[in-house]
Structures are given as C-alpha cells and as structure tokens.
Amino acid sequence: MPTTAPTTPRDLTRDSDLVRAARRQDVGRTPVWFMRQAGRSLPEYRAVREGIPMLESCMRPELVTEITLQPVRRHGVDAAIFFSDIVVPLKAVGVDLDIVPGVGPVVAAPVRTRADLDRLPELTPDHVPYITDAVEQLTRELGPTPLIGFAGAPFTLASYLVEGGPSKNHERTKALMHGDPELWADLCARLAQISGAFLRVQASAGASAVQLFDSWVGALSRADYVAHVQRHSAAALAAVADLDVPRIHFGVGTGELLDLMGEAGADVVGVDFRVSLADATRRLGPSYAVQGNLDPALLFAPWPALERRVREIVEEGRQAPGHIFNLGHGVLPDVDPDVLTRVTALVHECSTRS
Ligand code: CP3
Q1: Ligand 1 test: best mutation among 32, 35, 36, most atoms within 8 Å of CB?
Q2: Does the global pTM surpass 0.85?
Q3: Domain enclosing residue 287, as ranges
Q4: Separation of 85 CA from ligand 1 center, angstroms?
C-alpha cells in the first residue's frame, strides 16, 4: 500500500488566499484580516476576559483559543492572529513586567546596563509550553483558515525594556543606541534570539504565517535603522526561514523604511495609512507583497466615505505583486464591530476575480 505523508496544519492552508497573496501568487479574492481583531471591540471578548488579567489570559490555552477564534467566527476574516502580546516572551524568560489597562506594558526594573542585560536569558520552547498547546489546539479548530503567529521586533521590545514602559520619544532608547552601541547591539541580539525563538515555537506548532511587529521603529532615520536595527530584525526573521511560513514585517510611520524592512527578510511588508499602497509598491519593487492600509479612524466615518476608501485600497492593492487587506494599525477599542464585518464582506465582494 502506498503510504501518504500525514497532513500538517500548514498543508490545509497552503492554498488559502492569505498564504497565496503573501507568496505573490494569484488569489480568488483579496484576503483580509485586522490587526487587533481580537480584543476590546468585541463584547464576547470583554465577557470572557472579565476578571482575568491580560498576561494571565495569554497563558491559558483554552482561553487563547476562544479569543483567537472570536473575530474569525464573527467577521469571516481570512486569517486568525494568535492572541498573545509582544511582551509575553519577555515575561516568560523572567522579566518582571505587567500590562496595565489603558497604559500598555510596564517593566518593573528597566534594562539599561550590562548587568541588566546579563539577567535576560535566552528563550527556549520550555519557557512557553502554553504557546505550543494553544497553537496546536487552534490550528486543529481552524482547519483551512491560516493562523498568523507573531512577535515583537528587537527595537520595539528594547524600547519597552529600556524606557520601562510606553514612550513617545524613545529618548533613553536612542541615548543607549548612540551612547553605548556595543551594549545596544548585544541587547538587540538577545531580543532577536527571544523573538526568533518565539516565532519558531508558533510556526513549529502549526502557524501558517508569522508577523514581526516593529511598531515604534518609525521613530528612526534610515541611517540609524541600517546601523543599529536592521540586522537584528533580520536575525529574528531568519529563525523561521527554513519553516515554509511567509513572513510579514510591520511598523507604524515606516514609509521611509519600507525597502529596508523588506530587505530584513520579509515576504510581505506592512504599510500604515500615511503612505498609499501605490507609493509603497513603487518603493518596494516587485519582490514583496504589501499588507494594509486602511486608517483605523476611518472605521468611524459614514459608510459611503469608508466604502469609497476601501474600494480604492483594494484597487491599489491589485497593482501590487500581492496584497493582504488590513488596517494601517490596530482596531481601536471603541469601534462598532459590525463595521469590521461589513468591511470584510466589501473587500471580498469587490475583489472577487472572475
Ligand atoms: O488581535 C490581535 O491583534 C492579537 C493580539 C495582540 C495583542 N497585542 C493583544 C493585546 C497583538 C498582535 C499585540 C501586539 C502588541 N502589543 C504590539 C504590536 C502591535 C501594535 O499595536 O503596534 C504592541 C506595541 C503591544 C504592546 C501593548 N499591549 C499595548 C500598547 C497594549 C494596549 C494597552 C491598553 O490597554 O491600551 C497592550 C495590551 C493588549 N495587547 C491588549 C490586547 C487585546 C489590551 C488588553 C486588554 O484587553 O485588557
């Protein structure tokens, strides 16, 4: 009897529009998902999270599975994004931090010296068994719908660690980068290991694509990005290079960095709402798909204005080598979730290939 290789979760999603668009292959219609699609915009999310702190909820596979599936069921999006947070792997290796509602990640003892760095261990899969469990459970339930795993990029993680919390100007981070470039490089190399290992755990357990979030790297010039950041993001992305998962690389305000972020090892470059997809495609050339880029605030506009903008983005995306429809940044907590459902249906309807 001929033996057939066992079917893996990724075999089931290989022909999904999301994976195909990421690989610049033709699609039946433009795939769509939303950054922060799981979260406070959904009443069913608020209900299951009640009384459970954010970081604790990320460590419960049953709850992670339910929360990750909620927006897929409700909106009919083309992908699930794993419910977790960019600081979960830092917590897992022992960093004393919390996610404070309305504030974001807050670190008890910021990392600013060589001794602080020496206390930050590498991440192994044994630090995060609950991530493996949740991804395995999720991919079983998702079937042909791809799961996107993710991690924070070294610069964005370093900013939280060095500043001790969210920062507008990243002043201590930039002071360290320029004042002690050797310590900065060693810190980013450690964070690249942690991010890369976190991506690898998710991809090994069955995620079909990964996204590296460098949310705050738009604060840097091209020169500083090349000198102090790019190789570390490249190292994080390289950790899954052999695993057959498309890699998405996203930041906010990164119009001037798009080509450099692609070069770091991405298949798809995320574009925020400040640059049109047509400009982004010109800047990136033929080797990358793009993801984006509806302004999340436009979800509050009257439907005709929103509809016009969605149609424009879909049209611009059709000129790109590949396009995944998304927002230019995360869903805002006060948005009416029915609008997201309607946008999903509109993207599908107006992009269906004959
Ligand atoms: O649906 C999804 O997109 C998946 C889940 C997800 C979360 N955080 C859940 C979350 C993802 C992909 C992230 C990534 C993340 N976390 C980033 C990169 C993406 C981005 O927005 O640029 C960043 C910078 C963080 C750090 C962070 N964590 C912030 C700024 C906040 C918001 C704090 C607040 O309360 O306003 C968090 C908390 C967080 N992460 C929430 C969620 C759903 C809100 C917590 C809650 O519901 O109580």
Answers
A1: 36
A2: yes
A3: 21-351
A4: 6
